[in-house]
What we know:
The structure holds two protein chains of two kinds.
Chain A: H1 2-16, E1 31-40, E2 52-58, H2 65-70, E3 75-77, E4 87-95, E5 102-104, E6 106-112, E7 120-126, E8 130-132, E9 137-144
Parallel strand pairs in A: 1-9
Antiparallel strand pairs in A: 1-4, 2-3, 2-6, 5-8, 6-7
Chain B: H1 2-21, E1 25-34, E2 44-47, E3 53-55, E4 61-68, E5 70-77, E6 84-90, E7 95-97, E8 100-102, E9 112-113, E10 121-122, E11 130-134, H2 135-140, H3 146-150, E12 156-159, E13 162-165, E14 179-183, E15 186-187, E16 206-213, H4 217-220, E17 227-233, E18 241-251, H5 257-260, E19 270-282, E20 287-298, E21 307-321, E22 324-340, E23 354-355, E24 363-364, E25 366-385, E26 388-403, E27 417-430, E28 436-451, E29 463-464, E30 467-478, E31 482-496, E32 499-515, E33 518-529, H6 533-537, E34 546-547, E35 555-570, E36 574-596, E37 601-623, E38 628-641, E39 648-649, E40 656-666, E41 670-679, H7 687-690, E42 702-713, E43 716-723, E44 731-733, E45 736-737, E46 742-749
Parallel strand pairs in B: 1-7, 1-8, 14-17, 34-37
Antiparallel strand pairs in B: 1-4, 2-3, 2-5, 5-6, 9-10, 11-16, 12-13, 14-15, 16-17, 18-19, 18-46, 19-20, 20-21, 21-22, 22-25, 23-24, 25-26, 26-27, 27-28, 28-29, 28-30, 30-31, 31-32, 32-33, 33-35, 35-36, 36-37, 37-38, 38-39, 38-40, 40-41, 41-42, 42-43, 43-46, 44-45
Amino acid sequence: MRFFYFGGVLLIFGLFAGCDGGLAPPPPSPLAHIEGSVYYTGPWPPADSVRELRFVALRFVPQNALDLLLRFNELVFSDTLRRFVDYDTFRVTLDLRGVVADTFYYSGIAWKFGPGLLDWRPLVVYDRPIILRPGDRWLLVFEADFRRPASFPGTP
Amino acid sequence: MRCAYLGPWLLVSLAAAPLQAQPTRATLEGTVRDVYGNPIMGVNVVLIGTLYGAATDAHGYYVIENVPAGSYTVRASAVGYVPAEASVHLSPGARERIDFALVPTIVEAPEVVVTAARRAQPVEQVPVSLSVLPLSALAQRGIATLDEALRYVPGVQMAGNQVNIRGSSGFTYNAGSRVLLLVDGFPMLAPDADGIPFELLPIAQIDRIEVLKGPGSALYGSGALGGVVQVITRDFPEQAETEVWLSSGAYKPVRYAEWRAHWDGARQWRPFGTAIFTHARRLNDRLGGWIHATYLRDTGHLNANERTMLQGYAKLRWQPRADVRVVVLSGLTWRRSNAFLYWNGLRDPLNPGRIPASGSKDAVGTNDTQSLQWTFLPALTHVLSPQLFYTAGGRLYALALRPLDEQGRPKPLSKGTLGFRYGGQLQFDWQPTASQYLTLGATADALATRSSFFPEADHQPFRSQPEIAVFGQWEQALGLHWRLTGGLRFDAYQVRADRWITRLSPKTNLLFQAQRNLTLHAAFGLGFRVPSLAERYIENQDFFPIVSNPDLLPETSTGYELGLRYRKNAGSLAEMQLELALFRTEYQDLIEPRFQRERLAFQFVNLTHARIQGLETLLKLNLLSNRFESQLGYTWLDAKDLTGPQPLPLSFRSRHLFKGGLTIALPAQLSTGADLRLASRPERIDSEFARFVPDADVTVPVRVLDLRLSWQHPKLTLTLLVKNALDYYYVERPALLAPPRHLQLQLQWRP
C-alpha cells in the first residue's frame, strides 16, 4: 500500500520537477508603447489635401495648431501613416527610464491638409488621459472619417 | 314502508363494512446484502412494469408500501453488483419479505445511464462515448458548481465558461454553447445568450453528471453540436436525511511583486466559502422530496471578480397510483457578481482592462450584474402497460438580469435583460419485445428575451425564437451480439416572422458485444446549433465593441466514432476498465467573432469549416477492494481549420489533454487523493482579440494538480483540499488568469 502511495506522489512531483510556474510578468523594461489601429470609414479627399497622417500624443490639451509648434517637446508621434488604405496601424515607443509614469491628455490622428507649417488639424481624437508606466503597452482604436474630422478644443 | 327498506340496507351495509375496511394494498420489504452478509446501501429495488420502488438504507433495508395486490417481478440492482430478480405475489393487506444477496462484479453490473438514448439503459449498451461523474466524486473534490465538475471529465476542456467536448467549442466569447445542458432530460440553456448556466443547480442534489461525447442533435436538437451534458438530480431516500455542507477556503496571495503592485488585494489571502443545507424525506407513502439551500460567497482571485449567491431548490415526487408519477423540480437563484471579462495585460493581469477607442467612452473589462433566475420543471410519467409508458413535461427558465451602477446599486431592468425559455415535451417509450425499443416524441419550446444589448425591432421589446420538433428512435437487437439503433429528428426554428430554419438530423449506431466483457461500437450522428439571440442581435460598446448579424446560419456537425469498452474483474484484488475511441467530426458554418473594419467592431459571422479528429483512451483501475482507485484519460486532438486554401490549426484547441485521478484509502478512516489536469498549449489562437487587449495572445500549457485528504466518520466527513497545488499561473481562455493555489476545508455533517 505504501508503495502505491509514495510511488504515486513521487510520480506526480517527478512529472513537475522541471516545470516552470506558468505565466509571469514580462522582463522589466524602461520602454512603454502606444499602439493601435485606425480605420478609415469614408471616402478619401484628393491627394493634395491629405499630405501626411501621423498618430500624435500630447502631454497637454492643444487649443490650436500653433500649440503643436510651441510645445513641440511635449508631444510624441508615430511614423507617417499610409494614405488611401482601409486601415493602418501605428506604434510609438517611449523610454521612461527613471520615470514613474508619463501622462498624455490628448492624442489622435493628426492630418496635414495643406502645404503650410501650421496646416495640421486633428482627424480623430482620444481625449481621455493615457497614463504610461515603464513596460506598459497601451492599445488604441480609432475610427476616422474625413467628412467628419475632429477640431481643436480651442476652435469654435 | 321506509323502515322496511332501511333494515335490509343496514344489514347489508354492516355486513359489508368489514370487507370495505380490509386493505386492498400490500407491502413488500426486505434487505439487500452482499454475498458476505454485509448490507448494501443505495440498491434500487423496483417492481418491474410499475413505478413502485425504493432504495435501501444504510442497513440494506428497503420497504415498498401501498402496492396494489397482484403478482410482480422484483429487481434489485446497484452499481458493482449483478442485478437479482425474484417473483412475488402480494395479497391484499399482506406484508411480504424478499431478501436479496447480490454478487459483486463490475463485468455484469454496469452503471445505469440515460443520456445517450433518452432512456435508461446499461452503459454497456450505449453505443457512443460517455463519461459519468457521480455525486461522490463531486463531494470528494469540494466542487460547488457544474463548470468545476466538468474540469475533471476526460476529454472535456473548459475555455472560461465554455465547455469543450473533444475540442468542440473553442472559445467564442461566451455567446452560444456548442454543448447542450440537460437537467433531468430537459434542455436548460440560459435565455439571454444560450450559454450553460453553471450555477443553476445545487451541486449537492446532483445524483450524477453524464457527458455524451459527439453530436447529439438526432435526439436533442439544437445545441448538441459537440456533445451533451446531462445532469440527473437526486431522488429522495426511504429514510429521512439531513445534510449540512460547510466549505471555506482562500486564494493564495500572488507571488509576483509587479502584479501585487497594481492591486492590494493580491497581497492577502482572498476568502471564499459555501454553506449548504439539504433535507430529504418521504412525507407519506405517495409523496416525498427534498429541499435545498445554498449560500456562496467568493471574493475572487482577481480584482472586481466577486460573487455572492443564494439559492433555494425543491424537488417533489408524487405517486398517486402504481402507474403514475409526477415529479416537480423548481428553484430560485439570486446572484450578484462582477464578471471579469479581460485583463489589463500581462504586466497587470489581476485588474480588468479597457479598450480605448475614439468614442464617447472606453469599453471596460468587467461587467457587474445582479440576477434572479427561476426554474420550474414538472414531469408526469404514466405506465400504460409493462411495455409502454409516456412522459409529459414542461420547462420554464426565467432570468432577470440588472447591471450595477458605480455605487453597486442595481439599475432598472430596462437597462438589463429579461428572458424566458419555456415549453414542453411528450415522449412515448415502447418495448414490444426484449430485443426492441421504440422512442417517439415531440417538443415545442420558445424563447423570449428583452435586453438592452438587443435593439428593438418594430417596437417589439422581446426578441423571440419559437421551435418545434418531432423525433423517433428504434433500437433492435440482432441476435445475441449485435444491437442496431436508428434515429431521426426534425426541427423547425422561427428566426423571423417570415423565416423558419428546418433541420433533419439522423443517427445510426451499431453495437457488437464480442465477449461478455468486451463491446465494440460504431456511431454516426448529425448535430446543429441555431444561432442564439445574442449572436444575432447583440449591439454593445460598453464591454466590447460588437454589432449584430441577424442573418447568421445554423452551425452543423457530422460525427463518426469507433469505440471499444473492455472490463476485467480479477475478484476483489483488481478491477479494470478500458475505453478507447477514434472519432472524427466535420463542422460547417461555425460562428466566430470577426472584426469588421467597416463597422469598427466585432461581429459574429458564419466563417469556419473545420475538422476535428482524434483518439481518446480511458483506463480505470481499482485495486485491493477499492482501496486504490485510479483513472487515467488521454485525448489526442487533430483540429484543423479548413476555411482557407491551406489547413491551419483550429483556434483555442489543445492537441493533448490528460486527466488523471487517484484515491487511496488509508488507515484510521483516512483517504487521500490527487487529480492532475494537463493540456498542451493551443497551437493557434484568435489574434484579432489581441489587437485590442494587451497580451491576449499569450498562452501556456495547463498543468494543474489538486490534492485532497479526507477523514470519514459515519456522520461526519472532513476534507482538506489544495487546489492548483503547484501554484501554476495559466489561462483557460484569452486574457483571464485562472485561480492560483487555493486551500479549502470542507465539512459534511449528516446528523
